[in-house]
Amino acid sequence: MKINQLSWMIGGPQGSGVDSGANIFSRACAYGGLYVFGKREYHSNIKGEHSNYVVRVSSNLIRSHLDEIDFLVTFDPETLFRHIHKVVPGGVIIYDVNQENITVDKIPTIDKQANKRIKKFLSEKGVGYSVGDVVNYARDNGILVYGIPYVKLLEGLAEKLGNPQIAKMDVMINVMAVSASLALLKYDFNLVKEAIKYVFKAKKKVADLNIESAKFVYDYVLENFEETNYKLQPVGRDAVDLIIIQGYQASALGKIAGGCRFQSYYPITPASDESVYLEDNAVFDLIGENGSEEKGSIVVVQTEDEIAAITMAIGAGLAGVRASTATSGPGFSLMAEGLGWAGMNEVPVVVTLYQRGGPSTGLPTRHSQEDLLFAVYAGHGEFPRIVYASGDIEEIFYDVAKVFNFAEKYQTPVIHLIDKAMANSIATVKKFDLSRVKIERGALVDVFSDGVYKRFKFTETGISPRVKLGTENAIFWNTGDEHDELGHITEDHEIRTMMVDKRMRKLEIALQEIEDEDKAIVYGDEDSDYAIISWGSTKGAILDAMDMLRSEGYRLKFVQVKLLHPFPKDRVLNLIGNSKFLIDIEHNKTAQFGQIVKREILRDIDYHVLKYNGRPMSLSEVYSALKSILENKANKIQVLNNGD
Amino acid sequence: MAIKIDEIKKLTLEEYKTDVHNDWCPGCGDFGILQSVQLALFELGIPRHKAVVFSGIGCSGKTPHYVNVYGIHTLHGRAVPFAIGAKLANPDLNVIVVGGDGDGLGIGVGHFVSSGRRNVNLTYIVYNNAVYGLTKGQASPTLKLGMKTKSLPKPNINDAVNPIALALVSGYTFIARGYAYDVKHLKEIIKKAILHKGLAFIDVLQPCPTYNDINTKDWYSGKDRIDPVTGKPIPRIYKLEENGYDPYVHNPDDPNEIQQKWIQVVERSLEWGDKIPIGIFYVNEHVSSYEERIQGTIEHYLEKPPAHQKISLSDGRTNVKIDRLLAEFTTRVI
Ligand SMILES: Cc1ncc(C[n+]2csc(CCOP(=O)(O)OP(=O)(O)O)c2C)c(N)n1
Ligand code: SF4
Ligand SMILES: [Mg+2]
């Protein structure tokens, strides 16, 4: 019996409630004190294409997903066909009994390549192409299969409630499937009920009806089906206060807490969720002067394009406001010129860059880390910028205030790199602690009375006192042209050199001032011969894989670099220490981070573990890739390709 | 816009000028526009630190460096979104945007149109010289089809955009045209535009003596058309207000009136050649400004706009209380 150790997947056509189903499941688990980590996969489509959600549950902290599935929860044949090969022996499949005759070829959303792949798998096993064939195959291989008569159950519920309309309400099937799985897991129905209530909180009637149908299925399953090898049970967790949250929400909350009061954006996946969240929560509570209750707010503007988005944010930055924009690759491409203007005029602005698969439109809804070098180099000419990457949802929240601090202290644009995997994952994390959120505004002055104000005054550090537009006695000029201390155009060759040096000097200061812990973090065994180097959302799978490998006696260390530009060479060298082998893990083809590290620390990377198929690395993949390296069986480059 | 003139010490006109060397070509129409902007600020008594001039890129883009108020010389075509960002962050600022016709109606035309939908309270002046001055005279979006200025190798094969009509259909609530050499007239328009609540657009006919040998000062003043009776030129330019033209929308609830106003704007905007109108084409004071619309969802917006909000406590910690927002993510059953 596996207790509180589960890899659970729900799938279905987009628009059928896969998301809300997974949400209900995750919350129900979290309400029981369990840790969850959920990964969402979806197409760039609104209705019909396949989407799925894998949720891992445990009584211990988890940070990544597995390829292997214990529970496959379906209500359409496509999900079954696409994912059957991942279900472990002893695992569970829930499917719709009425669909047994449907074959792979009858499903238009299974494209040619997937059709070929599925049939290849089935024919190799000597299995036919219908749902019934697949179910029999699963049963023969020790998987427990549970056929749920969704339609009949709806009819039963309609009769029970005396409301014939309900028989046709197949929109509830997602919740019924989730509830069936939780019944098989013997999970407390009260927690399921609370989760449904939460997910449909805006619509009480809908919530009530879904609770009725969930309960109906739950009881049906308990009465009619045999036990599984799995169980989920609540654990007491009074000591740690957990929240369950997605990456984009953490970023939005980080902006509110970090003092961002202006956000402009143009809609793009996976970045716009953040802006929509901010717009929805534009007014929030503040602690006033004497501890009194006050209200604060953020202005969110949906612009005509990303050029307007970044330039508006810069305009707000000129007015002294912490301002940002959130975008993804195609939008960031349009922002390059604005970024350079902010660098040239030393205006603090934050670009939250949610990476997705590129180039061009690429994979709009899929994961990648392909924009690192672009973030470091975007824009013509040379100007200072800071590029900073968070590694998980919790980090995102605390990093947001930091990137605004960097922007204001070094008066320059900051690119905060997030990615689709973090944006759309859901996880239980420690409740955010606001006392850890510090606001540092650098050389911003409210009053100026010191003679002639020079916005670009030459100083030792390259940082000049900054005022907001509207400050008395401190008129200044900005221009994208090279300029003098006042901000007027100049082409003088001497001033040019001095100004370039002044601007770039700020990066040296940043490298001196930014705390070591904010530059790069080390995990694991510091004396290990093997040092993993990585950045961004690979962190979760790496740490989880290291835990597994440690229990097998392997020693590994992991250096997570957060400050990617300017590159904290000394810190990274220090953390790598005497390790003999460097293993670079990242989500792109050309090992972009590896290139930077190699160039900076003048040392070759021994192994690259790369993935660029649009799907985040699973714990399973990272574990095997590392193991083959540790066993000295790996090629220099390993390309991972699991997905669905 | 609320300017309390009695509260402030009146400055001299000189104090609105900088000592930066002006490198426009001799005789350029830009000088007249610059003077009009300085005069408007001076006559309205706007404190220098309360005004910001944003500009795009071009000869016109240099304007802010010559005005002694905050001056932000931005990117080609992007002055308007920069300005909107600053204005929404701090609505107390008086924001004027200036730029070329290539800047605003070519590369920046998306912002030109989109801004009309917002009606942010600012004044946008386009220097209409029908050429790309700073890149040596290529055709701008306002150069008429078939025209060949001396800077062009071949006649222009693009049709011209109609800035007045475009502003109208885009939603601008104050639409006017001035003439760079009629400073007295232009400065009055700019003053009215600044005082207008909402987005004001001023199309300024600006001779570029260096590259545009068609729409010259002499051409506008009709030097080629001598009245046989008086022996004087017959000017092409005339003033709308001298013809009893009424640009104001009086009753926004009367669809007939709105329709009639729109028709008259389009009719006048089509006049070119022998008769070219300047003056105020259209004013609709009844449209809510973007700031008022934000106020609709953020009650304290105008009183506590982003630029006036505190973001930390005295010890540097955030002053945000996030509990209410975090409740949504709690794992405790409520
Ligand atoms: C993105 C970009 N493209 C091209 C240019 C080159 N450029 C500089 S000024 C200008 C045209 C200016 O014409 P206009 O806006 O009409 O201003 P004018 O000089 O006539 O006042 C161009 C194309 C630029 N600065 N930026
Ligand atoms: S090129 Fe034309 S617009 Fe530019 S400064 Fe000279 S005259 Fe004026
Ligand atoms: Mg021009």
UniProtKB/TrEMBL annotation, chain A:
GO terms for molecular function: oxidoreductase activity, acting on the aldehyde or oxo group of donors. Residues 529-605 form the Pyruvate:ferredoxin oxidoreductase core domain. Residues 254-500 form the Pyruvate flavodoxin/ferredoxin oxidoreductase pyrimidine binding domain. InterPro entries: 2-oxoacid/accept_OxRdtase_asu (IPR022367), 2-oxoacid_Fdx_oxidoreductase (IPR053400), PFOR_II (IPR033412), Pyruvate:ferred/Flavod_OxRd (IPR050722), Pyrv/ketoisovalerate_OxRed_cat (IPR019752), Pyrv_Fd/Flavodoxin_OxRdtase_N (IPR002880), Pyrv_flavodox_OxRed_cen (IPR002869), THDP-binding (IPR029061). Residues 15-215 form the Pyruvate/ketoisovalerate oxidoreductase catalytic domain. GO terms for biological process: response to oxidative stress. Pfam families: PFOR_II, POR, POR_N. The keyword Oxidoreductase applies. Keywords: Oxidoreductase, Pyruvate. NCBIfam families: OAFO_sf, Oxoac_fdxalpha_Archa. This is 2-oxoglutarate ferredoxin oxidoreductase subunit alpha. It comes from Candidatus Chryseopegocella kryptomonas.
UniProtKB/TrEMBL annotation, chain B:
This is 2-oxoglutarate ferredoxin oxidoreductase subunit beta. Gene3D superfamilies: 3.40.50.970. The keyword Iron-sulfur applies. Residues 57-204 form the Thiamine pyrophosphate enzyme TPP-binding domain. It comes from Candidatus Chryseopegocella kryptomonas. One of its GO terms (molecular function) is iron-sulfur cluster binding. Keywords: Iron, Iron-sulfur, Magnesium, Metal-binding, Oxidoreductase, Thiamine pyrophosphate. The keyword Oxidoreductase applies.
